[in-house]
Amino acid sequence: MLTVENLHAWYDHSHIIQGISLTVNTGEIVSVIGRNGAGKTTTLRTVMGLVAKRKGRVGFDDQGDILMESTHARYHHGLGYVPEDRRIVPALTVRENLRLGLVASALKGQEEAVIDRIAETFPRLKERLNQVAETMSGGEQQMLAIARATASEPKMIMLDEPSEGIMPVLVDEMFDLFIRLKDQGTTILLVEQNVERALGISDRAYIMDQGVIVHEAPAADLLENKEIQDRYCSV
Amino acid sequence: MSGITPDLLALQLFTGLALGSVFVLLAVGLSLIFGLLTVVNFAHGAFYMVGAYVGVFLLGLTGNFWISLVFAPILVGTLGLAVERFLVRPLYGRGIDYPLLLTFGLGLVLVELVRILYGLEGVPFDTPPLLRGAVDIGIGYFPLYRLFLIAVTALLVLALWLFIERTSYGLIIRAGARDPEIVRVLGVDISRVWLIVFAIGTGVAGLAGILSAPMRSVIPDMGSTVLVEAFVVTVVGGMGSLIGAVVAGLLVGVVVAFTSLFWPDFSDLSMFVLMAAVLLIRPQGLFGQKGLMG
């Protein structure tokens, strides 16, 4: 589904991503873990086309190399993205935020039906559809961001630290949701600080440190390998 | 204070609203363009002036005010479209001062071009026959054309409000003003939205130009004072706010109208005093969001 080869990215003059390669196969959940500042967020942003200075190859689905394509084109190829700190539009209602996830989609004509379906999947959003988004709790806002990104039924979704700052009961709900998304055929690339939770639902994982990938393994193996976890993931 | 009757005050209020209508039309476009594109459009006054001259041209060509009124804003908006696409767009991402300087220069160029084509002297623009004279509005006689101006402004603001609040495109505009990146992530080609918003904003400035033509003299410089007034209104209302532009536009119009009634010497200054007062109490403007410039 996603093949990243020798990817580099820069912010101004700092070389953040220094030649990483990773693969996400169709139907997998793959995690990228590592310390703060390892380059995980920049990796996702580069794959989404949001970092101006980038080099390498990003193969997606049957699209060939999409490295230099615009961000909105990637959405239309079926690549969804939930950025760090959620980025819901605070002044809009929950419903309007969800509509925003559909305005450019082929499903735009069935807006009402899609929102009804989302309301079933996300009971917390159902009763808050007409509430202004910023009045919800952090966890609910995160649910909204995920619902918005998946409304258009992307083939693959990238999530950047979805569990950050969210109360545990909602984190459980969220990880259950990821498993359901996977069962429905959505491919997932997950960046997480919550290493055990992430590995628990992942097929494979990559460990990043200082802009490069230092380790790749099946998630189950990594979950047991405390030494590697301690070396690259402990604060 | 002899001769100041309640009816006179009420009439002056209407005069202020008519004056304010032009401010509203200008500030709406200026504010929309800033709110979404973070472009401080210093050519806004020039687009207004071009609107008046395109009106003069079309009126000469067709002899019909109504055709001119419809097509002048469309032509000015088309000019705005070209300006955004070919001049402003290459400057995105370089900071707020680049488009500011560009539009400032563009304004000067447009004024000079019109001077070359039409000369320095003002050109006449007759009030259309249907809108001449005054009507009794219950409190006294008021020029029909100014009522028309208020009505057109009200209709346009209503249409814009419906567009922004009730359509999918408006949803994109509202979200894009807050977070253009997430709008791109959700599949929207934001540069097309910016193009259209720039065209709408400049087109409405052109509309203000042709609407003002029968009341003010049509001269190449007519945009420069109006630009200052439009900025005052935008600052008072809050950059990027549609409601702010409407409320502040009418407020400034009424304040100017009343000061010119009571203290004529003070009338040019009054809007700046109002602006200073608003800035002292609410630096982001009446309806502005804090930190929008940051």
Describe this structure in words.
The complex is a heterodimer of chains A (235) and B (294). Helices cover 37% and strands 26% of the residues of chain A. Chain A is an alpha/beta fold and 235 residues long. Chain A folds into two domains: 2-78 and 154-233, Rossmann fold (3-Layer(aba) Sandwich); 88-152, no CATH class. In chain A, the strands form two sheets. In chain A, strands 5-6-7-3-8-9 form a six-stranded mixed β-sheet, with helices on both faces. The longest helix of chain A has 16 residues, at 168-183. Chain A is globular, with a radius of gyration of 17 Å. Chain B has one domain: Orthogonal Bundle (ABC transporter involved in vitamin B12 uptake, BtuC). Helix content of chain B is 72%, strand content 2%. Chain B has helices at residues 6-37, 44-62, 65-88, 97-118, 144-166, 168-178, 180-185, 190-212, 222-237, 242-262, 267-281; strands at residues 134-136, 141-143. In chain B, helix 2 packs across helix 8 (190-212) and helix 9 crosses helix 10 (242-262). The N and C termini of chain B lie far apart (48 Å). The interface between A and B is medium-sized, with 26 and 18 residues.
